[in-house]
Each structure stands twice: as structure tokens, then as C-alpha cells.
Amino acid sequence: MKLKVCGMKYNPDEVAALRPDYLGFIFWEKSLRCFDGEIPQLPQGMQKVGVFVDATLSELVEKIKKHHLEAVQLHGSESPEFCKELRQQNFKEPIQTIKVFSIKDDFNFDELGPYENVCDYYLFDTKGKLPGGNGYTFDWKVLKDYPSTKPYFLSGGIGLEEVESIREFMKRPEAKYCYAIDVNSRFELEPGLKNIQELKDFKKKIDER
């Protein structure tokens, strides 16, 4: 099980020392966790994810090149055509594309079809007032109808209290393609400042499962 810690702002070095698989840096100006600075050198194998909400293609390309991002997370209403255009850009290394879909009580999985061939992962988050970082979970049972074989990130209000729920979820058939757990607001002292001890405890418990 991979781990992604999103909403890096004030203490990415400390988080990186815990060796999660992905660190997410938000480049949406309306977010309290919007990152503005230089991303520190990360340990080898840890991937930098840029999180965007309806940014233009040129904005994405600029940030990818400036920060040497390995992946982008598209958290807005980006179309399949937009994802295809992004894939066609000439980067030195291939860029992974993570397309986000927000879920409340149910979800129409037909929405995934047009994205099957233009992104590498899906991410399922809780639908709320903001695109991410809302602090509460959706009902993971919705994913029993997941029709794809594409690996996905499970996100949305996951904290230490969800460890047992995650263990139970991973025993279900719908977890077959769950590739990573994505955490953010439930591990913060304030927006963008992560609680290192709680992240450490969470990672240890997840690794023990």
C-alpha cells in the first residue's frame, strides 16, 4: 500500500523524512495550502505531485518544469481531451496523471470511461465545499461498483481513526485496485503544517496491516 501526503507547505522536509511514496504540493491559489517556494530535495524514489484545479495547460507545463514534478493531480473539471493534451507534451520524463473524482453518497462510474486511456490513476475524494481538504470521508462501499482495472488513490478525510476501517476495506473485493492512501487535513496542526508524530504513527500502523 502506497502513501501520499498532500498539502505540503511549511514542513515538507520533516514529512519527507518519514518516506511516504508521494508528496503533494498544491498549486491552486485559493487553497490555504497553496505552495509558493522551492520544493526541497527529496529522497530518491519519492515522487513530487503537483495538485491543480482547472489550471491552463501552460500553467501545468510551467510548474512541471520548474519543480521537476513526477506527477500531476487534476482536481477540477479537466476534460479527457485536456488530459490527452497533457500526455502529448514533450517532457524529459513521462508525467503520471492522477484524475480526481469527488464522491458524496453515490457516484456514476460511467464518468470514468472517457478517461481510461488518458490518465494513469484515479483518485476518489469526498465531495465538499472545496476541491479536497474537507476533512471527512465518503462511504467506501460505493466503490463496490468500481468497473475499472485502473489503480486508484483512496482519499477524503482519512486520519488515525480510520486505520481499522482501512484494514477492513482492504479485505473487500472493491479494494483490489486500491493503490494508495492519500492523507491531508486530518494530519495538520494548521493548514499546510503537518503533525509529524501522527503521520509517523499512521504510516507505522498502515505498514503493519
UniProtKB/TrEMBL annotation:
Q: What is its EC number?
A: 5.3.1.24
Q: Which keywords appear in this protein's UniProt record, sorted alphabetically?
A: Amino-acid biosynthesis, Aromatic amino acid biosynthesis, Isomerase, Tryptophan biosynthesis
The answer to whether UniProt assigns keyword Transferase to this entry is: no
* One GO MF term: phosphoribosylanthranilate isomerase activity
Coiled-coil parts of chain: none
- Give the SUPFAM superfamilies listed for this entry: Ribulose-phoshate binding barrel
Gene3D superfamilies, per the entry: Aldolase class I
Which BP terms in the Gene Ontology apply to this protein? L-tryptophan biosynthetic process
Which residues are in the N-(5'phosphoribosyl) anthranilate isomerase (PRAI) domain?
Answer: 15-203
Q: Is Amino-acid biosynthesis tagged as a keyword?
A: yes
Pathway per its UniProt entry is: Amino-acid biosynthesis; L-tryptophan biosynthesis; L-tryptophan from chorismate: step 3/5
This enzyme catalyses: N-(5-phospho-beta-D-ribosyl)anthranilate = 1-(2-carboxyphenylamino)-1-deoxy-D-ribulose 5-phosphate
Under the heading InterPro entries, the entry gives: Aldolase_TIM, PRAI_dom, RibuloseP-bd_barrel, TrpF_fam
Q: Known PANTHER family for this protein?
A: N-(5'-PHOSPHORIBOSYL)ANTHRANILATE ISOMERASE
Q: Which family does it belong to?
A: Belongs to the TrpF family.
* Name of the protein: N-(5'-phosphoribosyl)anthranilate isomerase
Biological source species: Ulvibacterium marinum
The uppermost taxa in this organism's lineage are: Bacteria, Pseudomonadati, Bacteroidota, Flavobacteriia, Flavobacteriales
What gene is behind this protein? trpF
